[in-house]
Amino acid sequence: MKLDVMVVAPHPDDAELGMGGAILNMLASGMKVGVLDLTTGEPTPYGSLEKRAAETAAATEALGLSWRENLGLPNRSLEATLEARKLLASKFRLHQPDWIFAPYWTDAHPDHTAATELVEAARFWAKLSKTDMPGERFHPKRIYNYYCVHLKMHAQPKFVLDISDQWEQKFEAIKCYHSQFIKGREDVSPAFLDQLRDEASYWGRSIGVRYGEPFTSREPLGMTGLGLLV
Questions:
Q1: Domain that holds residue 191
Q2: pTM, rounded to two decimals
Q3: CA distances, 190 to each of 14, 41, 102, 175 (Å)
């Protein structure tokens, strides 16, 4: 399946948290968007392989995705190995996404930083000739980075996307991950889901709308005109 956009997530739920609104926005515009989870995300305190698979399926349906796969790499010990690079580059060659979305490159979670290192290396490998990787040689045009970080940091994004119309549907997708964001957090204040809403409201307010999602990129952003700026 040819994709316009592939969102690469270290674990199931990272794509929803970091850019669920953008995924919905792009799907609504007619773009073909897929999510590739690198690991199962398990073990976790209240999850299991079966629970996480069911939650991921529910979130996928809530987003309206028609393509989502899992690369099956090891959770908690994700590394940008040559074998993993080949697996991911093969996905790029087979599905030929013009845009790749990866986590922000600085984080406390080693899986997140390894994921971005892996994406950048696989993007280069995907264009190699004289290789036994499946598919045609291909080079994704852009890598953009979404924020789903464990550091207490203030993001300095290159752009913020208005997701006011998509927020409630994004929120429903996130709530599908009951074992991650609801179970065991009943007595935590402020509640994790309340924090997510506050963060989305903050980024929305930064561009004069209700809700927003921040993004960045190592490379310069190109524009053909200013008509879409808010």
A1: 5-216
A2: 0.97
A3: 20, 24, 28, 16
